Records
---
Amino acid sequence: MAQDTKQRLLDAGLEMLLRHGYNDLGVQALLTATNTPKGSFYHYFPSKEAFALELIECYMVEVHRGLDATLGDRSLPPLARVRRFFELTQEKYREEGYLGCMLGGVGQELSGVNEVFRAKIEQCFNAIAERIAGCLEEARQRGDLPADFASRRMADLLVNCWEGAALRTRLRRDPTSLQAMLDFYFAAATG
Amino acid sequence: MAQDTKQRLLDAGLEMLLRHGYNDLGVQALLTATNTPKGSFYHYFPSKEAFALELIECYMVEVHRGLDATLGDRSLPPLARVRRFFELTQEKYREEGYLGCMLGGVGQELSGVNEVFRAKIEQCFNAIAERIAGCLEEARQRGDLPADFASRRMADLLVNCWEGAALRTRLRRDPTSLQAMLDFYFAAATG
DNA sequence: GGTTGAGAGTAGACCGGTCGGTCTATTGGA
DNA sequence: TCCAATAGACCGACCGGTCTACTCTCAACC
């Protein structure tokens, strides 16, 4: 037993937060879905907000794992690694039923009123863009991108446009917007 | 008096929905903010959900007004009109304190659980993309865009990427992501 | 090795507050 | 006179969170 009640809560929480968002994620609903008494939830987490922040942490662990697996793959040229990261992510979205990105969802919902979440999500996007920028910069130095390519800003742009495409994916429950966005970006950036 | 109670509710509702999202928009808070008794609200609107749908309708009226004012301006070449539409929109975001786009916000928050809103928001994006596609197509026929330019799909792409940049704008409370996105898109599209 | 005490974890009744929504009474202009 | 509109008390349901009671596990001790 021990810690696997906590893990069960986190696993179910990730799914529910992605689908329902923060305000529509009821603690009671989570407990019912996981057959957990309330006492256990508040034993592991001080509040619903702390729980959600930990869910974002979990989500980011997975994102970084994806970045490790793709950007770190030296058998591929750097641009192809970046592209592979997003294609891997797209595959993950498909498995989840095309509900888009949790960071985008929570960010949209809460950043208008909650400073803690606003700063947290912004920091997550920054971390992702930073790592992608590193790989783009490698591509630039190899001559795969124009010499005046602004890696860091173009990484932000890529992440932002991806999030927009992910929102559309959530609305349409299909991946075409993601694919179209990647095609356009890489054609334009290398062109 | 007459209908201006209703208008007051809609005006305040637009602001609150943009900032708080749907689930965190309390009917009571709206009534307090506008000094309106509950009886009046439910006299004009059958439910909170119907109210929010009417808010989206109002939002779209403004969007279409913006499209009319820009895409319909024959004194500018078609591509410049499209760009002006987004720059006008960016100006609107600025006035609101960079809270992004209401369609993106509500779409993200509700499309995972509420089919009515999901379909509604998707239809809104389609309507916008459709009108932009018309203008892009005009540009293509004039030779301002490549002959094989897929106007309709490129309009969707533009709208999607814009929404992503708008989310980032909301997170950072500044417009740089919007500007960067427009610069990239128009530079890349015109080749 | 059996007894016992401490603390992690489980269990769920219960709390005040707020939610969206209803109801009845009243007002005021046409 | 009539009815749109205002006014707000009131409703049951549910919200996140607290509290107490209980059940284990396991280590300390004679």
Note: Chain A is about 75% helix and 0% strand.
---
Amino acid sequence: MDTGDDELLDAAFLALADPVRRRIISRLSRGPATVNELAEPFAITKQAVSKHIQVLEQAQLVTRTRDAQRRPVHLNPARLEALTAWIDQYRLVREGQFRSLDAVLQSRAAASGTQAKDPS
Amino acid sequence: MDTGDDELLDAAFLALADPVRRRIISRLSRGPATVNELAEPFAITKQAVSKHIQVLEQAQLVTRTRDAQRRPVHLNPARLEALTAWIDQYRLVREGQFRSLDAVLQSRAAASGTQAKDPS
DNA sequence: GCCTTAAACAACCAATAGGTTGATAAAGCA
DNA sequence: TGCTTTATCAACCTATTGGTTGTTTAAGGC
């Protein structure tokens, strides 16, 4: 019953476990940006920022498009939702003191359009 | 304006970036358990599981209590909420296509009782 | 064509994460 | 007291992260 998106959860949570990457997410929530723009506020090299973006991209939290020699990075909100969906399973179970897990998952799926899957 | 809970977010997201630790969270959502009980379904040593629990404890996602020679581990749902709060900031901003960030944070704070803080 | 800019690729390095085995501590039970 | 159970501590090994510098590719501007 376990799905193969374990690695995607791994990658997504790992991607957010770094303040630089979280600030990149924060910046991208206000619109797309290039690597140079994203690197500017940090005291690390652009190569390092580029690697951070690769990590975010691998987790599918961001996507890169091509615009001439620019390569703007865009946020992918759908993946962020997948994370809250995972967390909320357990959070809601505790809050509701054992009202059915199925009910919780189904209400979440209905609200967000996300597939209700088996937790890992 | 930046708060010092950056490390707590680091620790919490890192803690969830591992399938073993996510399964431990899943198990604990059904009630407290000892290290031995938690280790049973895994093909790794108890020492390794103990280390995983240390990681979760450092992130304040779980707490340990003392009960004779047992040391039951309990879930701490409040910390899970802090993670969804962080993610939802940016998720909601995108969905609302730039309705005020302040409004979003305040509505979240009102709904969950969480303090509306400056994102890192 | 040549130069500049944007960004990726490659090799390398130090620090840490996840795992192991072995020893130790603390609490109950005989 | 001595034995068993529960769980941690300590040392060690290997793979991976996060960072660096240096080189290369790709697209425009002149």
Note: Chain B has two domains: 6-75, 78-112.
---
Amino acid sequence: MLELAILGFLYEAPLHGYVLRRHIAALTGHVKPVAESTLYPAIKRLEKAGLLVRATEPGAVAAPRHVLRLTEEGRRELRRRLAEPAQREITDENQWFVLLAFLRHLEDPGAQAAVLRRRLAFLEEPTSFFYDGDRPIGAEEADDPFRQGILTIARATSRAELAWLRDTLASLGDVGR
Amino acid sequence: MLELAILGFLYEAPLHGYVLRRHIAALTGHVKPVAESTLYPAIKRLEKAGLLVRATEPGAVAAPRHVLRLTEEGRRELRRRLAEPAQREITDENQWFVLLAFLRHLEDPGAQAAVLRRRLAFLEEPTSFFYDGDRPIGAEEADDPFRQGILTIARATSRAELAWLRDTLASLGDVGR
DNA sequence: ACGCTATACATCGGCCACGATGTATAATCC
DNA sequence: GGATTATACATCGTGGCCGATGTATAGCGT
């Protein structure tokens, strides 16, 4: 997820680590703060994999900056990760949001629609959080207000996202199944 | 998060690993499947910490079962973790939902309300996913439909949860700030 | 007869994330 | 004048999570 965010932001413009960090903090930081000690090793991994290169520039106000720029391979890799996301990136809202943030970099509307359809299929599967044996328990019959809350909130989110997905798929010219 | 789920389910009744796993899968599995190779080491950690004990029973249909039962210390630890959640458990919806699922085990409504108030404070903070410099970018002006979607969905979720939080706080007899 | 699925546990290696800590400089606040 | 904050990088150790793999037994379909 972190690597996807790095590739996504650098796809738009070369950045140095510090600015990159602030972008990532804005995108996911309120939910899951990104530690510097996670970001810098991640940058190193991507560099080692040949997906980005560093150029050292004298620092504007402090230490010298390492300006990070995606290689052509890095640009291909971002598009690949966007087009073929892992199932976790479809199901986990945190990861899904990161993917959505950069989905515009897939130039083919059909490929974009295909990704949205995977999310749609996931949301259309019936899922409950609690079961009585095999029978799913609805929000009305949950035995405490907190579990009711989970079901209520999840349902509201799901409804909003389904509406948005269907609208967006339609405007992408997707003909449905 | 996993440990909290284990403690939470065992607080209600002793279970063996396999059933515990199915409960956890129902609670969080559609978003983030729980691997057996994560569950069993987690159980071991909790056992080593003195929070639960195992009793081996002959297996009903297969291998012998290890029935897991919380110790008094384990029960105290669950209540402590519920009453004093880490900030991540407040901000990350996945973790927050697990916490909510077991909040009923805090017997004091005041303590329950205090936890909900922390989530309320978090949701009331203004947060945007994207910035133009320091200025947050709203859903209307986001430059692509996918980023618009993120903002739209997040807003819908937030609105639903805020309504539920205020209702529930009121019914817990919370007088507000 | 054979394979598949469910029950029921367990280990191992690798990767990744995080907190703590370190090293500088420059600006701002009190 | 001293402390704090922001900029800008980096390492290290701990520990969690995961995929792959292993070991059994029992039932069910074909």
Note: Residues 2, 35, 37-38, 41-42, 45, 59, 61-63 of chain B lie near DNA strand D (CB under 10 Å from a C1').
